[in-house]
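Entry 12.
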Amino acid sequence: PQRTKVLAMAMGLGMMLGGSLALLRQFLDQRLKSVDEVSAMLGLPVLGVIPAMSRREDRSARGQITCLQSQSHVAEAYRTVRTAVFFGVPKTEAKTVLITSAAPGEGKSTMASNLAIAMAQAGQRVLVIDADFRRPALHVFFEAGHHPGLSDYLSGEMRLEETVIRSRRANLWFMPTGPLNEDPGGLLNGKRMQ
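Predicted 3D structure (tokens):
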């Protein structure tokens, strides 16, 4: 056997195959990798980019990072989003901000909590309503415990005023989800939700 010739051919073939697989993988990858790609693909402006936070950090701390670590780059990113929301839509046209995503664990609750805190810090009166009947998390950030909430109001068991909690922070109120219901879709589609 001609070891050097076989080894050289195997190396060359391996490099060609590896390079081809890398190019194919890159070609098939449909993920959006930059703010410009997101904006171009959706045709919508990007309000801001929130850096990833460490999962080792306490969940409650991540939900309140805007006030607990006010000088951090993450807190500044939330304030940037707040400013973009303020100047992006005239106050007379929109008074509601809806935060949603396609999958669990993408940071909806963390975003809602920190954006609400940032808006309250800017002097805006803010009411955060947790309407996540599958995996509610905002009650942890606002330290609400087992307080009556949205489900109690929507089912007609309580008045709206009885379900809202005043936060320890100025200008910030919170309505937790309340007891989980068997038919959250029915509650959210009811007349009381309007």
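Annotation: The longest helix spans residues 3-28. The CA atoms of residues 57 and 191 lie 40 Å apart.
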